[in-house]
Amino acid sequence: MLLIIKSKATPEEIQKMSEDFDGYIKLVIDMERNILAGGGERHFDGEQLLLKEGSQQENLWGGGIDWETKEIDYNSIINLRPGQNNPSRDILSQKIRQKFDKIVKDLLL
User: Fold this and answer.
1) Which residue of 26, 43, 55, 81 could cross-link 50, Cys pair, CB 3.0 to 4.6 Å?
2) 28 DSSP β-pair partners
């Protein structure tokens, strides 16, 4: 289930978001608004939900978290941005990765 998380997620919200991939949660994070869309089958869906909520495309980055190991990854097709110096599915900027981690930890862990 795809949810927008704006404050610390409840255990019920975590459970719902992790159902699509049996413990793995796809994430799209708005780096400016410090919110995320979690769950769903495709990052694109979370991206579209956040855009409808007022997010700006250049602030959205995708990745995920394995809920059992708490390992965060930074891989999503929405991260392909040659115009923003990110010609990869992975987030290449350490600064963006650090902010991604902080938002994940603040809202989910």
Assistant:
1) 55
2) 37, 62
Residue 72 in contact with residue 100, Cβ under 8 Å? Answer: yes
Query: Full-prediction pTM beyond 0.85?
Result: yes
68-72 own/partner pairs: CB under 8 Å, 24+ apart: 68/23, 70/109, 72/100, 72/101, 72/104
For residue 18, the tally of other CB atoms under 10 A from its CB is: 20
Q: Quick one: residue 70, left, alpha or beta (phi over 0 = left, psi -120 to 50 = alpha)?
A: left
pLDDT one digit per residue (tens) for the chain, 109 residues: 999 999 999 999 999 999 999 999 999 999 999 999 999 999 999 999 999 999 999 999 999 999 999 999 999 999 999 889 999 999 999 999 999 999 999 999 9
55-67 burial code (b ≥16 CB/10 A, e <16): beeeebbbbbbeb
CB of 65 within 8 A of CB of 31? no
